[in-house]
Amino acid sequence: MNLITDEQTIGDIRIFGKREEGGIYDLYNQTHTRGGQVVLEQMFRSPLSDKKMINERSSIISCFAQKNILFPFEAALFDMAEKYLVTDDQGKQAGTQSVLSEKDVANGVMAVIELMQLIRSFVERTEVLANEAWQPERIGILELLTDGAFEPVYREKAKARIAYGAVTAYDQLFRVREKAKIERLLALIYNLDVYLSVAGVARERKFVFAKAMEKGGAILKVKDVYHPGLTNPVANDISLHPEKNLIFLTGANMAGKSTFLRSLSTALYVAHMGFPVAAGAMEFSVMDGIYTTVNLPDNLGIGASHFYAEVLRVKKVAAELAMGKSLFIVFDELFRGTNVKDAHEATVAVSLAFARKKNSLFIISSHIVEAGEQLSMHPSVGFQYLPTRMEGITPEYTYKLEAGITADRHGMIIIRNEGILDTLKNGHKRTV
Predict the structure, then answer these.
(1) Boundaries of domain holding 87
(2) 320 shares a domain with 286
(3) pLDDT tens digits, one per residue of 153-210
(4) What is this structure's pTM?
(5) Are 279 and 225 in contact (CB under 8 A)?
(6) Cα dihedral sign for 328, 333, 336, 339?
(7) Looking at residue 338, which CATH number applies to its domain?
């Protein structure tokens, strides 16, 4: 069972990087194999929505992290084995014959033999046996390795040359007769590669493992959450539950609202994968879906303005909520694409409707602080803001959440500080 999300959300929280900057996937990607990279990407595209599955994966990675268990193969060995095992398939897909030379086949056979010997030794290590959550996969690997067809593999001496006739026999064994078993073995090793690489990330970055709770409880408690991509992040605490399931977030431009929303959304998204998160502690009710709207573009293809794009986005979320799904919803500066009066009325109406959905959680940021007066009458709405401290005419930002609403607006101060008006008036930028 997978978490529901969409490309807008994946783009908002930058799961996958762009040419100029890496994404969250890149931060967690320390895999040693090409197959591991593919599995990791699949996991990022398909977060889980099942408490048992999330906690099991989290337990596997957590145990590997605690015991500091490393991937047992050299990258060069696995590259050779992968090249040997997949070249024939690639040739068939392209309508060509295998392009492996006799030497490639011999090297590939030796690499697979060494790989099987090493993985058998790995799964029998005491510290690996102690990882209870990984036992089903460990047993699956061991059953494949101890299949009678592979018995000759364990009589071979490590790195020893193999006779031509034996190479031919092993080639038939690995790539023809028992190809399906070898493919299943590789798939399990790719999973192991992901677990161990993510465990390494958890150790290096001191990430924590979140506790997943039953779906529908609408609880999210995070201590010291921060954005994993920042060099010097500021951590924040947040708590949401059915009695306070919507936060109305205010703060001036550049105060850190969007960064905080991305930090929290990223943590919840990654936690649904069973991966460690950038926080001090975290527990959450499993959700059916996560939808964020942090950077919503105009849809010029259908002639939609920014406001209409916002309306369509709210409509999509409303349809999902109407089906009774438990969702985590983020809107950054809701209805900023229309005039202040309409934005005020729409923000209040939509926020109050959201707050009635007790099995879901919402965070709405806005510059329309006046909407807070009406929203404050609803007990399910909480208020947080990111403050600005003025040092003379220079705004300074704490990036630390505080309770309440702020009317901070420093747009004109920033414009004046940048000398824009002086440039327009005098033809040059004011020197500092």
Answers:
(1) 31-205
(2) yes
(3) 999 987 788 899 999 999 999 999 999 999 999 999 999 999 999 999 999 999 999 9
(4) 0.91
(5) yes
(6) positive
(7) 3.40.50.300
State how far the alpha carbon of 260 is from the alpha carbons of 9, 109, 226, 285, in Å.
15, 51, 7, 20
Q: Tokens 């510059």 map to which residue? A: 367
**Is residue 214's pLDDT more than 60?**
yes
- What is the rounded distance in angstroms from the CA atom of residue 421 to the CA atom of residue 409? 18
What secondary structure letter does DSSP report for 328? E
Interhelix angle 164-172/102-123, nearest 10 degrees: 70
- Nearest by Cα to 31 from 237, 247, 191: 191
Q: Phi and psi dihedrals of 383, rounded to 5?
A: -130, 130
Backbone angles phi, psi at 211, to 5 degrees: -100, 120
Give the dihedral sign, CA 70/76/79/80. negative
**Is the CB of residue 40 less than 8 Å from the CB of residue 25?**
yes
Cα–Cα distance measured from residue 167 to residue 116, given in angstroms and rounded to the nearest whole number:
16
400-411 as b/e: b if 16+ CB within 10 A: ebeeebbebebe
Residues 142 and 278 in one domain: no
